[in-house]
Amino acid sequence: MARKLKWRHDLHNIMKHVENSKTETWRRVDLEIAFNVSRPAAQRIMRAIGNIDNIGGTHAISRDSVITYLEHLIEAEDPTEAHLRRLQNLEPAPRHRKIQGTVPNDLHSVMVSSLPPNIVLKPGGIEVTGSDFKHVMENLLILARVLQNDTETAAQLIDPPKNRTPSIDYELKTMFNDLRVREAAYQAAQTEKQKA
């Protein structure tokens, strides 16, 4: 028979701690503190909770997932058994995978002007295309290198400087409206002269 969870009697207090916490993304260390358990125990709890995200190589879970897990254990007749069932039924935690791809040596000093045609910097966006996943990933690596080497040029293409300030636009609009009013008045005066 499995050992009983040492924190099974503290489920309500743990739930209050989690509900009152401002932490939205929980890591193993957060579980160690909330459940007052060791690192391996916190890792098992994290696996039992499920919905694990791999964020930069660190496993994390949402606060909502922790609350759902605790609610499940509180409602269970035997929290230890419920915990063990969850461990048996859940998928393994996601693994951090390194993206495979290389930037050719001649592109280590690539600048915006020498970008390949399938990497386009345009006002308000960037477009990266490729023949397959690997090609797109390589192009993204090239783009990252360009952004590192030639940041100012890239920024100018994506955020081009505005030619006119809003006050000039307003002044021009006001001037043209005034001209329209004057033109209409002039035309009306000319029409009156012709009738007379």
Explain the overall architecture.
The protein contains 8 helices and 5 strands. Helix 1 packs antiparallel against helix 4, helix 2 packs across helix 3 and helix 4 crosses helix 5. The mean pLDDT is 82. A hairpin with a 2-residue loop joins strand 4 and strand 5. 55% of the residues lie in helices and 9% in strands. By secondary structure, the chain is mostly helical. It folds into 3 domains: 82 residues; 54 residues, no CATH class; 33 residues. The N and C termini lie far apart (114 Å).
Break the fold down into its secondary structure elements and pairings:
Elements: H1 11-20, E1 25-26, H2 28-35, H3 39-49, E2 53-55, E3 58-62, H4 63-75, H5 79-89, E4 119-122, E5 125-128, H6 133-149, H7 151-158, H8 166-195
Short overview:
With 196 residues, the protein is mostly helical.
Sheet with most strands: strand arrangement:
1-3-2
Order of helices and strands: HEHHEEHHEEHHH
- Residues in helix, %: 55-70%
**What is the CA-CA span between the terminal residues?**
114 Å
Instruction: Evaluate the radius of gyration.
Output: 32 Å
Structural class by sheet pairing and helices: mainly alpha
- Shape type: elongated
Main sheet overview: 3 strands, antiparallel
The number of helical segments is 8
| Relative strand content | 5-15%
Contiguous uncertain segments of 5+ residues: none
Mean pLDDT: 82
Keywords for this entry:
single chain, two-stranded antiparallel ribbon, 8 helices, 196 residues, elongated, three-stranded antiparallel sheet, 9% strand, 5 strands
